[in-house]
Amino acid sequence: MSDLGVELDVATSIAADAADVALSFLQRGVEWVEKNPRDLVSEADRAVERLIVARLGRAFPDDDVVGEEGTAGTVGVATAGRRRWYVDPIDGTTNYLKGLPAWVVSLGLADPDDELLVGVIVLPVTAEVFTAVRGGGARRNGVPIRVSDPATLDRTVITYALAPRTPDQWGADLHPRLRTLMAQALGTRMQGCSVADLTSVAMGRIDATVAGGMSPWDVAAGLLLVAEAGGRITAPDGTPVTGPASAFVAGSPSVHPAILSVLTGGPATA
Q1: Reduced to 3 states, what is the DSSP secondary structure of residue 116?
Q2: Which pLDDT does position 174 carry in this prediction?
Protein backbone atom coordinates (compact mmCIF):
# COMPACT_ATOMS: atom_id res chain seq x y z
CA MET A 1 0.00 0.00 0.00
CA SER A 2 1.23 3.53 -0.78
CA ASP A 3 2.06 6.19 1.78
CA LEU A 4 -1.60 7.24 1.50
CA GLY A 5 -2.72 3.95 2.97
CA VAL A 6 -3.89 5.49 6.23
CA GLU A 7 -6.00 8.06 4.40
CA LEU A 8 -7.50 5.36 2.18
CA ASP A 9 -8.34 3.08 5.11
CA VAL A 10 -9.89 5.85 7.18
CA ALA A 11 -11.92 7.22 4.28
CA THR A 12 -13.18 3.73 3.38
CA SER A 13 -14.30 3.09 6.94
CA ILE A 14 -16.03 6.47 7.19
CA ALA A 15 -17.79 6.07 3.83
CA ALA A 16 -19.07 2.61 4.79
CA ASP A 17 -20.50 3.91 8.07
CA ALA A 18 -21.98 6.94 6.30
CA ALA A 19 -23.69 4.64 3.80
CA ASP A 20 -25.26 2.70 6.68
CA VAL A 21 -26.64 5.93 8.13
CA ALA A 22 -28.11 6.92 4.78
CA LEU A 23 -29.77 3.53 4.42
CA SER A 24 -31.20 3.74 7.94
CA PHE A 25 -32.91 7.01 7.06
CA LEU A 26 -34.50 5.38 4.03
CA GLN A 27 -35.91 2.62 6.18
CA ARG A 28 -37.75 5.05 8.48
CA GLY A 29 -38.62 7.80 6.02
CA VAL A 30 -36.77 10.96 5.04
CA GLU A 31 -37.76 14.61 5.36
CA TRP A 32 -36.49 16.92 2.61
CA VAL A 33 -36.60 20.52 1.44
CA GLU A 34 -35.85 22.34 -1.83
CA LYS A 35 -32.66 24.36 -1.18
CA ASN A 36 -32.67 25.73 -4.76
CA PRO A 37 -35.09 25.23 -7.68
CA ARG A 38 -35.00 21.49 -8.56
CA ASP A 39 -32.17 20.96 -6.03
CA LEU A 40 -33.28 18.87 -3.06
CA VAL A 41 -31.59 18.26 0.28
CA SER A 42 -32.73 15.84 2.96
CA GLU A 43 -32.15 15.42 6.66
CA ALA A 44 -30.14 12.35 5.67
CA ASP A 45 -27.69 14.44 3.59
CA ARG A 46 -26.99 16.65 6.57
CA ALA A 47 -26.73 13.82 9.09
CA VAL A 48 -24.35 11.87 6.86
CA GLU A 49 -22.22 14.96 6.27
CA ARG A 50 -22.03 15.63 10.02
CA LEU A 51 -20.75 12.09 10.57
CA ILE A 52 -18.14 12.39 7.83
CA VAL A 53 -16.93 15.83 8.94
CA ALA A 54 -16.58 14.75 12.57
CA ARG A 55 -14.66 11.59 11.71
CA LEU A 56 -12.35 13.29 9.22
CA GLY A 57 -11.72 16.10 11.69
CA ARG A 58 -10.59 13.67 14.35
CA ALA A 59 -8.40 11.66 11.98
CA PHE A 60 -6.86 14.55 10.01
CA PRO A 61 -7.22 17.78 12.02
CA ASP A 62 -4.86 19.71 9.74
CA ASP A 63 -6.95 19.07 6.61
CA ASP A 64 -9.87 21.14 5.33
CA VAL A 65 -13.23 19.49 4.68
CA VAL A 66 -15.19 20.97 1.78
CA GLY A 67 -18.78 19.75 1.84
CA GLU A 68 -21.91 20.30 -0.19
CA GLU A 69 -24.43 20.90 2.56
CA GLY A 70 -22.51 23.46 4.64
CA THR A 71 -22.53 21.38 7.80
CA ALA A 72 -20.57 22.85 10.72
CA GLY A 73 -16.91 22.05 10.21
CA THR A 74 -16.91 22.35 6.43
CA VAL A 75 -15.45 25.22 4.44
CA GLY A 76 -16.72 26.72 1.21
CA VAL A 77 -13.26 27.47 -0.18
CA ALA A 78 -10.25 25.38 0.79
CA THR A 79 -7.40 27.08 2.65
CA ALA A 80 -4.21 27.73 0.71
CA GLY A 81 -1.43 25.34 1.69
CA ARG A 82 -3.73 22.70 3.19
CA ARG A 83 -4.97 19.36 1.92
CA ARG A 84 -8.69 19.23 1.41
CA TRP A 85 -11.34 16.50 1.56
CA TYR A 86 -14.19 16.97 -0.89
CA VAL A 87 -17.27 15.38 0.63
CA ASP A 88 -20.59 14.59 -1.03
CA PRO A 89 -22.68 12.86 1.66
CA ILE A 90 -25.30 11.69 -0.82
CA ASP A 91 -24.65 12.38 -4.49
CA GLY A 92 -27.90 11.74 -6.34
CA THR A 93 -30.25 12.97 -3.60
CA THR A 94 -33.27 12.99 -5.90
CA ASN A 95 -32.59 9.36 -6.84
CA TYR A 96 -32.19 8.56 -3.14
CA LEU A 97 -35.51 10.16 -2.23
CA LYS A 98 -37.34 8.54 -5.17
CA GLY A 99 -36.03 5.04 -4.44
CA LEU A 100 -33.75 4.86 -7.49
CA PRO A 101 -30.47 2.96 -6.99
CA ALA A 102 -27.96 5.46 -8.45
CA TRP A 103 -26.84 7.38 -5.37
CA VAL A 104 -23.52 7.28 -3.55
CA VAL A 105 -21.40 8.47 -0.64
CA SER A 106 -18.23 10.10 -1.98
CA LEU A 107 -14.98 11.27 -0.34
CA GLY A 108 -12.05 12.65 -2.31
CA LEU A 109 -8.73 13.95 -0.96
CA ALA A 110 -6.66 16.54 -2.83
CA ASP A 111 -3.30 18.08 -2.04
CA PRO A 112 -2.81 21.85 -1.52
CA ASP A 113 -2.50 22.30 -5.30
CA ASP A 114 -5.81 20.43 -5.83
CA GLU A 115 -4.12 17.35 -7.29
CA LEU A 116 -6.35 14.38 -6.46
CA LEU A 117 -4.79 11.83 -4.12
CA VAL A 118 -7.44 9.45 -2.71
CA GLY A 119 -10.99 8.62 -3.71
CA VAL A 120 -13.58 6.44 -1.99
CA ILE A 121 -17.11 5.91 -3.31
CA VAL A 122 -19.74 3.63 -1.80
CA LEU A 123 -22.86 2.59 -3.73
CA PRO A 124 -25.04 1.35 -0.85
CA VAL A 125 -27.82 -0.23 -2.92
CA THR A 126 -25.43 -2.49 -4.85
CA ALA A 127 -22.93 -2.94 -1.97
CA GLU A 128 -20.05 -1.70 -4.13
CA VAL A 129 -17.01 0.08 -2.73
CA PHE A 130 -14.78 1.87 -5.23
CA THR A 131 -11.33 3.07 -4.19
CA ALA A 132 -8.43 4.81 -5.86
CA VAL A 133 -5.04 6.13 -4.80
CA ARG A 134 -2.93 8.35 -7.04
CA GLY A 135 -0.44 6.08 -8.78
CA GLY A 136 -1.93 3.00 -7.12
CA GLY A 137 -4.75 2.00 -9.46
CA ALA A 138 -8.53 1.74 -9.06
CA ARG A 139 -10.53 -1.04 -7.43
CA ARG A 140 -14.07 -2.25 -6.96
CA ASN A 141 -14.52 -4.26 -3.75
CA GLY A 142 -10.76 -4.76 -3.71
CA VAL A 143 -10.47 -6.04 -7.29
CA PRO A 144 -8.61 -3.92 -9.90
CA ILE A 145 -10.80 -2.34 -12.57
CA ARG A 146 -10.15 -0.88 -16.01
CA VAL A 147 -11.96 1.38 -18.46
CA SER A 148 -13.38 -0.09 -21.67
CA ASP A 149 -11.79 0.03 -25.13
CA PRO A 150 -14.47 0.52 -27.81
CA ALA A 151 -13.11 0.68 -31.34
CA THR A 152 -15.37 3.43 -32.68
CA LEU A 153 -17.87 6.06 -31.58
CA ASP A 154 -20.80 4.06 -32.92
CA ARG A 155 -19.94 1.30 -30.41
CA THR A 156 -19.82 3.70 -27.49
CA VAL A 157 -22.35 4.21 -24.67
CA ILE A 158 -22.11 7.64 -23.05
CA THR A 159 -23.66 9.21 -19.96
CA TYR A 160 -24.05 12.90 -19.33
CA ALA A 161 -24.59 15.14 -16.31
CA LEU A 162 -25.28 18.76 -17.19
CA ALA A 163 -26.21 21.45 -14.66
CA PRO A 164 -28.06 24.63 -15.72
CA ARG A 165 -24.85 26.68 -16.00
CA THR A 166 -23.26 24.18 -18.38
CA PRO A 167 -23.60 26.23 -21.61
CA ASP A 168 -21.24 28.86 -20.16
CA GLN A 169 -18.56 26.19 -19.87
CA TRP A 170 -19.08 24.24 -23.09
CA GLY A 171 -20.40 27.01 -25.33
CA ALA A 172 -23.94 28.15 -26.05
CA ASP A 173 -24.47 25.58 -28.82
CA LEU A 174 -23.65 22.57 -26.65
CA HIS A 175 -27.13 21.06 -26.86
CA PRO A 176 -27.24 20.75 -30.66
CA ARG A 177 -23.79 19.17 -30.50
CA LEU A 178 -24.95 16.83 -27.77
CA ARG A 179 -27.81 15.73 -30.03
CA THR A 180 -25.24 15.08 -32.76
CA LEU A 181 -23.24 12.97 -30.33
CA MET A 182 -26.34 11.01 -29.35
CA ALA A 183 -27.00 10.28 -33.02
CA GLN A 184 -23.46 8.98 -33.58
CA ALA A 185 -23.02 6.95 -30.39
CA LEU A 186 -24.42 3.48 -29.76
CA GLY A 187 -26.46 4.92 -26.91
CA THR A 188 -26.67 7.60 -24.23
CA ARG A 189 -27.83 7.43 -20.65
CA MET A 190 -28.53 9.87 -17.79
CA GLN A 191 -28.30 8.34 -14.32
CA GLY A 192 -28.88 11.53 -12.33
CA CYS A 193 -25.72 10.99 -10.29
CA SER A 194 -22.39 12.22 -11.64
CA VAL A 195 -20.36 10.01 -9.31
CA ALA A 196 -22.28 6.92 -10.37
CA ASP A 197 -21.50 7.89 -13.98
CA LEU A 198 -17.79 8.00 -13.17
CA THR A 199 -17.83 4.62 -11.39
CA SER A 200 -19.57 3.15 -14.44
CA VAL A 201 -16.83 4.54 -16.69
CA ALA A 202 -14.06 3.22 -14.44
CA MET A 203 -15.69 -0.23 -14.49
CA GLY A 204 -16.07 -0.24 -18.27
CA ARG A 205 -19.86 -0.48 -18.02
CA ILE A 206 -20.10 2.92 -19.70
CA ASP A 207 -17.49 4.10 -22.20
CA ALA A 208 -17.46 7.83 -21.39
CA THR A 209 -19.27 10.56 -19.52
CA VAL A 210 -19.78 14.23 -20.35
CA ALA A 211 -20.30 16.68 -17.49
CA GLY A 212 -20.74 20.38 -16.94
CA GLY A 213 -21.67 22.63 -14.05
CA MET A 214 -20.17 20.28 -11.47
CA SER A 215 -18.96 21.30 -8.01
CA PRO A 216 -15.70 19.85 -6.61
CA TRP A 217 -17.45 17.49 -4.19
CA ASP A 218 -19.54 16.09 -7.07
CA VAL A 219 -16.56 14.67 -8.92
CA ALA A 220 -13.30 14.64 -6.94
CA ALA A 221 -13.32 10.96 -5.97
CA GLY A 222 -14.84 9.80 -9.25
CA LEU A 223 -12.36 11.60 -11.49
CA LEU A 224 -9.43 10.01 -9.66
CA LEU A 225 -11.12 6.62 -9.99
CA VAL A 226 -11.41 7.00 -13.77
CA ALA A 227 -7.83 8.25 -14.11
CA GLU A 228 -6.46 5.34 -12.09
CA ALA A 229 -8.57 2.91 -14.14
CA GLY A 230 -6.75 4.07 -17.27
CA GLY A 231 -9.24 6.66 -18.45
CA ARG A 232 -8.55 9.97 -20.15
CA ILE A 233 -10.04 13.15 -18.67
CA THR A 234 -9.95 16.60 -20.23
CA ALA A 235 -11.67 19.94 -19.95
CA PRO A 236 -13.82 21.11 -22.89
CA ASP A 237 -10.77 22.69 -24.55
CA GLY A 238 -8.80 19.43 -24.35
CA THR A 239 -6.63 20.44 -21.38
CA PRO A 240 -5.79 17.43 -19.17
CA VAL A 241 -7.65 17.37 -15.85
CA THR A 242 -5.88 16.41 -12.61
CA GLY A 243 -8.19 18.09 -10.10
CA PRO A 244 -11.93 18.41 -9.44
CA ALA A 245 -12.95 20.10 -12.71
CA SER A 246 -16.43 21.54 -13.24
CA ALA A 247 -16.70 20.52 -16.92
CA PHE A 248 -15.05 17.56 -18.61
CA VAL A 249 -15.14 14.49 -20.79
CA ALA A 250 -13.93 11.37 -18.99
CA GLY A 251 -13.67 7.91 -20.47
CA SER A 252 -11.93 5.44 -22.70
CA PRO A 253 -8.84 6.87 -24.44
CA SER A 254 -9.87 5.11 -27.65
CA VAL A 255 -12.97 7.27 -28.23
CA HIS A 256 -12.24 10.35 -26.14
CA PRO A 257 -10.92 12.40 -29.11
CA ALA A 258 -14.04 11.68 -31.16
CA ILE A 259 -16.40 12.67 -28.35
CA LEU A 260 -14.51 15.87 -27.60
CA SER A 261 -14.38 16.78 -31.27
CA VAL A 262 -18.15 16.46 -31.73
CA LEU A 263 -18.88 18.45 -28.57
CA THR A 264 -16.56 21.29 -29.56
CA GLY A 265 -17.85 21.56 -33.12
CA GLY A 266 -15.42 19.43 -35.08
CA PRO A 267 -15.92 16.17 -36.96
CA ALA A 268 -15.79 12.81 -35.24
CA THR A 269 -12.28 11.36 -35.29
CA ALA A 270 -12.97 7.76 -34.38
Answers
A1: strand
A2: 85
